[in-house]
Amino acid sequence: MAQYTPMIQQYLKIKAQHKDAYLFFRLGDFYEMFFQDALSASQELEITLTSRDGGGEDRIPMCGVPYHSAENYIKQLIEKGFKVAICEQVEDPKDAKGVVRREVVQLITPGTVMEGSMLDEKENNYLASVSEFENGTYTVSYNDLTTGENSIALLSEGFDAVLSELFNRPVKEVVIDSSFDEAKQQMFKDRLGFTVSYSDTTAVDKEFIPLVKDIQKEECIEGFGRLLNYIQTTQKRSLDHLRPVKKIELKKYMSLDMYSKRNLELMETMRKQGKKGSLLSVMDRTMTAMGSRLLKKWMERPLLSSKEILTRHNQVEGLLEHFFEREALREQLKSVYDMERLAGRVAYGNVNARDLIQLKESLTAVPGLLETLHQFNHTAVNHLYEAIDPLSELKALLEESLVDDPPIQISEGGMIQDGCHSQLDEYRDASKNGKQWIAELEARERRETGIKSLKIGYNRVFGYYIEVTKANIAHLPEGRYERKQTLTNAERYITPELKEKEALILEAQEKSVELEYELFIKLREKVKQFVGKLQILAGQVSRIDVLQGFAQLAEEHDYRRPEFNDQRIVDIKQGRHPVVEQVMGSETFVPNDIFMDESNDILLITGPNMSGKSTYMRQLALTSIMAQMGSFVPCEQAELPVFDQIFTRIGAADDLVSGQSTFMVEMLEANHALTHATENSLILLDEIGRGTSTYDGMALAQAIVEHIHEEIRAKTLFSTHYHELTSLEAQLTRLKNIHVKAEEYEGNVVFLHQIQEGAADESYGIHVAKLADLPSSLIDRATRLLQELESTPKEEKSSSEQLSLFVEDEKAKPAAKSSEVETRLKSLDLMQMTPMDAMNELYQMQKKVKQNY
Ligand code: ADP
Ligand code: MG
User: Fold this and answer.
1) Which among 387, 475, 603, 679 is most buried, taking Cβ atoms within 10 Å?
2) CATH 1.10.1420.10 location in the chain
3) In three state form, how does the secondary structure of 147-190 look?
4) Ligand 1 in contact with 580 (CB < 6 A)?
5) Helical H runs in 590-724?
6) pLDDT(822) > 90
């Protein structure tokens, strides 16, 4: 250490306290980074790496970014999940004895950014915290610094439930105890992509006690305390905009675990992990960023209370009825800015005059909005606006205080209207009069000297001056002005009188800017009194926005209002998949009915690959989620139960993302569904058991179906390529076979995408291979093989009853041998094979068949 210069020593000392962050070290007009920070930042940000002498033997790696454009670089680092510590000079270099004092004034982390340019306006930006307790429970708490929102949930179903809770939420960073289990930490990083941060303090400071006054559970207070302490250490500023912690009553909402959220592609697609093509993206017809965020919240937690769901449906119905009024409403919502985040920034203290103008414009739009809602003349819609306080007092305050087009900076004046403050008016007059005097002086001097091109100018160094071109200097009476500066073709002069006025003008200007700053801060404080009410108003407007979006969506795609029943009846006429339909167009999408009454819990779905099994199953899940969010649904008519949970499992081979995921994982996931589902749940099992050898898979699939049938009785859609399972219909009374119809046409398979009763007859695998352009000789050979196999005596084909024989009975062996090829052939996933793989497989099969005959 001693070898380094004092400044580098200072750097190292500060860096030691911020090991996990890039330290932006302020040096004049730059933020510099040194040592390892410089090496990696130069790569991450693609900026030049240099070095400097720091007193040690080697030169120190260094890179830097200009102070004024730092935000952009910080943004890049934050987006990559890093943290940035901003270290400023905290004393004037003129006053410094030795090295200028520097301190970290803010720690910017992915979960705590406030800067508008670093935020996605349509998403909340949560910082989460997870605490584990000895009794096996966990708390998950959330804070959105931009809106001041806080909430907490208590989970008692193990760590999986914690992952499910956090999955797909707009969380960037999680705060945990430093002794948190390593493997679990890794899951936060790998599975959820979070930045992990630590805080070991859980006590809630006295000033924040009011935030937790409604929270009874000790664990919750502690869990929130951890989050709060982390915010305090990163922000180092007043946090009085934080709102009281809301307890999330998980029992009031439909629960969707991680696998379901992912498989159903609610918030993002599996392949690209992008929003495009997700249910959220096709449903969003909101007009404001606040509305978008609320829509996402509703999707994250569909309702269970049919009363609350009905309220939403009633309102959507009302909004749907009047096209013109809804158009007007949508237009008016356009002029509402993000009041929620504006309110957050007012409270946080980083709002500027332009932000307040946005707030004013938003408030100006509110009365019109209320008027339009009134015109719907619909009881349910009336409830949407009756409780709204348009905050006209605040609007008036902003209207009379601010000019319409203020600058972004709050230190340059030009924000406050004339006539608001007499002292300010006087300063402005003085400066205006002074300028007027100067204009008159210019005219007078031109007249008296006869020099037409004489002019009075201003610059920062010399202030006001009189300028005469070289050509005219001869006409200037000797001693009239005092010479100040010589240019190539002009001379600049001053007079004592001019300097006197200049002093007055500048003083007036300086004072008026200072006074404006003060007045603005006062105004900001006044606006701050309204933050609570603004947050309420923002919430009400967001709700209107989401509901009008539902109405708009229903109109665009002809969605219908779903009805609910307590008899666990599912009856959808001409249902559609909301996403696939929008992607392929409603003309081409084939609608299908689905019917499950009290005496029918399980639909076993068979049909060729690519026929539409997965689509059909997801369609029901998505329709239920939409209905319980309060939206109308894609169909002609829908009767639904209120589902408490939805479980979705896809067989490993169909799971595109975790293709490598083993059979074990698949079984663990299925097990999770089986342990948590109730008779009020919906289970989708899509080709489960694919990840293992045929008989294992089939046996397990059958056992799972039986278990659901006997023990759980949840409504279940079960698709399978094990044709043998269709014979279960005879034994399990509440199971019914359905299949997706495909037809053969001139040797090709035509998918009709139509659901029909009963089991499918053929697997059409070979036809699909043809579609995939496998060599025709190979296809021919496979077709012949299949014919051969199909012509083998009936009793040698395995049925589900024979399956048990097969597994247990030695005598079944010969039969096994002859159908081995058949089984193998059936289990091949031709879509996933290269022509070479296919050739190899065929070769093996042929060898087996030759041995047998
Ligand atoms: P499976 O699960 O039976 O292999 P998918 O459900 O994955 O089949 O559907 C395969 C493709 O068929 C989908 O990508 C879609 O393009 C199309 N498809 C599915 N269902 C329908 C439908 N009802 N109407 C029109 N096209 C459909
Ligand atoms: Mg499928």
Assistant:
1) 603
2) 289-391+541-557, 422-525
3) CCEEEEEEECCHHHHHHHHHCCCCEEEEEECCCCCHHHHHHHHH
4) yes
5) 613-629, 663-676, 694-707
6) no
Give the pLDDT of residue 376. 94
Ligand 1: does its nearest atom lie under 6 Å from the Cβ of 590? yes
- Express each pLDDT in 707-745 by its tens digit: 999 999 999 999 988 888 899 999 999 999 999 987 777
Annotation: CATH topology of 121-248: Nucleotidyltransferase; domain 5 (3.30.420)
**Measured between alpha carbons, how far is 5 from 13 in angstroms, rounded to an integer?**
12
Query: Which helix or strand (DSSP H or E) is residue 643 part of?
Result: none
CB contact set of 702 (below 8 Å; sequence gap of 6+):
722, 725, 728, 800, 803
Does domain 6-108 fall under CATH 3.30.70.100? My reply is no
613 lines ligand 1 (CB under 6 A): yes
Q: Is the pLDDT of residue 41 over 80?
A: yes
User: Which ligand approaches the C-alpha of residue 608 most closely?
Assistant: 1
Instruction: List Cβ neighbours of 616 (8 Å cut-off, separation of 6 or more).
Output: 577, 592, 594, 605, 717, 740, 755
- CATH code of the domain made up of 422-525: 1.10.1420.10
Q: pLDDT category, 551, cuts 50, 70, 90?
A: very high
Dihedral (CA of 193, 198, 203, 206) sign: negative
Taking the centre of ligand 1 as the mean of its atom positions, its distance from the CA of residue 223, in whole angstroms, is 45
Q: Are 195 and 83 in contact (CB under 8 A)?
A: yes
Distance CA 75, CA 255 (A): 34
For ligand 1, whether the C-beta of 764 sits within 6 Å is: no
Domain 289-391+541-557 has CATH 1.10.1420.10: yes
Residues 6+ apart with CB under 8 A from 780: none
DSSP 3-state of 244: coil
Cα 738 to ligand 2 centre (Å): 15
Residue to mutate, 610, 619, 717, 831, ligand 1, most ligand atoms under 8 Å from C-beta:
610
Query: How far does residue 610's CA lie from ligand 1's centre (Å)?
Result: 6
Query: CA geometry: angle at 18 spanning 14 and 22, to 5°?
Result: 100
Check pocket membership of 720 for ligand 1, CB cut-off 6 A. no
Query: Does this model's pTM top 0.85?
Result: no
| Average pLDDT for 789-817 | 42
Q: Token pair for residue 591?
A: 């609608």
Q: How far is the CA of 602 from the centre of ligand 1 (A)?
A: 21
Q: At what angle do helices 392-401 and 496-528 cross, to 10 degrees?
A: 170
